[in-house]
Design brief:
The complex is a heterodimer of chains A (about 280) and B (about 190).
Chain A lengths: L1 E4 L10 H13 L3 E4 L8 H7 L1 H18 L3 E3 L2 H16 L1 H10 L10 E3 H14 L11 E4 L9 H4 L9 H8 L3 E2 L18 H17 L4 E4 L2 H9 L9 E3 H8 L17 H9 L1
Parallel strand pairs in A: 1-2, 1-3, 3-4, 5-6, 5-7, 7-8
Chain B lengths: L1 E4 L2 E4 L2 H11 L11 H4 L11 H9 L3 H5 L3 H4 L5 H5 L6 H14 L7 H17 L4 H12 L6 H9 L13 H13 L5
Antiparallel strand pairs in B: 1-2
The chains are: A alpha/beta (about 280), B mainly alpha (about 190).
The structure holds iron/sulfur cluster (2 copies).
């Protein structure tokens, strides 16, 4: 199967291990990822926080590029997914915005929705029944806090997630990999997101709460799908907190027994290799 | 009609109420102060006013007070409030509209670091087509004066190969420039 692929800026930099694990896992699932040639930034929080037109215009350029490829497009980063999906939604439901974007970018939108959150694509389109048979090293005895955060979840009418208060797609994936997703109440709480640099103390308070609640609920590790959350949960955590945080594709790679998995742990700011090695030792 | 504020009586500016509704596409008048939004807001303690108060102030047309407030800048856009509001008001979109109006009217941002960060981020996108984290962060540090914050983490990131020294610039950036010109030239609306 062939899919268009939008990596986004973080996967080339602060979330390198997310980028490599996305590619490795997709290959193992017989998915060919075709990177959008010359893809550009989605504008992230900074665009929608300051300029409405920019927040639609930047992702619209990507929508045009995806349409040119004629493929469904998967987006691993929750933040990019949110911006691209929001713009796609607006172009589908607001004729004025669509026409304006068609004019600025000289193209005709064909009205076909093509943007998918990679996690949702794996769970819903590829299907857990096709993923679990590929598990070589089940993540036995591993208790995982599935952390969804904000941007792959809300607003629900745009993300089309199963629930905005208690989503289960990541929990179900983790279960299919052989681990135990724990029940906890912070799965859709905010980590402070884009305020990481300008308001770091505030972000540390938020991540401290999230990680402490995960530990209290008995988790050995946290898993998530957002480079922004990952950076905050690792870099902005209170001193002394040592619970590791994985990208969901890293746990998939581990469970699928991919040899590349060993290369990812050293990229983390909080070393997850103890948990990972325990799984690999089986 | 007048409202008594800390600064004395003020005329209700209902044009402001209308403009925020139009820009955000949200029905501001349907807010009935249940405070569900504020109780789930992660930054409630940092904004100097609660989310529901922001809504009430828009209803009362307290434009100056809102546009210079810190609350509109510390809102991180997590959309929790909107997901829980019984009247379906997407307050994150309302906050976006307020910030945009503050910028357009040249009001000094209620939190200058946050605004500066957004500017540095978008400058990077405008000139390269993508964000180059190392140069973007350096620019933020120089301009904000927070020169030595995070030096240790930055070094760790660099050693892990996560902060590339040289930016990658994409050819599609001419189209990106076109988008920036269009977005900046005309006043925006929804
Ligand atoms: S979107 Fe803003 S106001 Fe609403 S809950 Fe999140 S931080 Fe608070
Ligand atoms: S949740 Fe909605 S109705 Fe209730 S106070 Fe907040 S904005 Fe108003």
């Amino acid at each position: 199967m062939k899919l268009a692929y939008y990596p986004g800026c973080s996967l080339e930099a602060t979330a390198k291990e997310f980028g490599s694990s996305v590619r490795a896992v997709s290959k193992a699932l017989d998915i060919e990822l075709v990177e959008i040639p010359e893809w550009t930034c989605c504008g992230a929080t900074s665009a929608h926080a300051t300029n409405h037109k920019l927040s639609v215009g930047l992702p619209a350029l990507t929508i045009k590029q995806i349409q040119n490829m004629g493929l469904d497009c998967v987006v691993p980063c929750s933040a990019c997914f949110n911006r691209l999906k929001t713009t796609e939604y607006q172009m589908l439901h607001d004729a004025e915005i669509r026409q304006e974007m068609e004019k600025v970018l000289s193209f005709k939108f064909d009205g076909q929705p093509r943007v998918y959150d990679l996690l949702a694509y794996f769970v819903e389109k590829i299907g857990l029944k096709n993923i679990s048979p590929k598990v070589q090293k089940p993540l036995k005895n591993l208790k995982i806090a599935c952390y969804y955060g904000c941007l792959s979840v809300r607003p629900g009418h745009i993300t089309e997630i199963d629930s905005t208060e208690n989503p289960m797609q990541l929990d179900n994936l983790i279960k299919a990999l052989g681990a135990t997703p724990i029940t906890w109440s912070y799965k859709v709480d905010c980590c402070g997101a884009g305020h990481s640099v300008a308001k770091s103390a505030m972000v540390t308070n938020l991540t401290g709460n999230i990680l402490a609640k995960a530990r209290e609920a008995g988790a050995d590790a946290v898993v998530n799908s957002c480079p922004l959350c990952q950076t905050n949960l690792e870099m902005r955590r209170p001193q002394g907190e040592d619970i590791p945080v994985f990208f969901f594709t890293e746990l998939m790679g581990l469970a699928l027994g991919l040899p590349e998995a060993g290369d990812w742990w050293s990229k983390h700011l909080v070393d997850p290799s103890k948990v990972a090695n325990a799984v690999q030792a089986g | 009609m007048y409202i008594i504020t800390e600064g004395g009586p003020k005329a209700l500016d209902l044009n402001f109420t209308k403009e925020v509704s139009q820009r955000s596409g949200e029905d501001i008048q349907s807010c009935y102060q249940c405070q569900k939004c504020a109780s789930g807001c992660p930054i409630a303690e940092y904004g100097e006013m609660d989310t529901n108060q922001v809504l009430r102030m828009i209803q009362f047309g307290l434009k100056d007070e809102l546009l210079k407030s810190k609350a509109i800048w510390v809102c991180v856009g997590c959309e929790t409030c909107g997901a829980r509001c019984p009247n379906g008001i997407r307050i994150a979109a309302v906050m976006d509209a307020l910030r945009e109006m503050a910028i357009e009217e040249g009001v000094a941002p209620g939190d200058k670091d946050i605004y500066l960060f957004h500017q540095c981020f978008l400058d990077s996108v405008q000139s390269l087509g993508r964000v180059h984290e190392a140069t973007m962060l350096m620019k933020y540090k120089l301009k904000s004066g927070h020169l030595f914050d995070d030096v240790g983490v930055g070094l760790k990131m660099f050693l892990k190969g996560k902060l590339a020294l040289f930016p990658h610039s994409v050819p599609t950036k001419t189209e990106v420039r076109r988008i920036f010109d269009w977005a900046k030239n005309k006043k925006s609306g929804n």
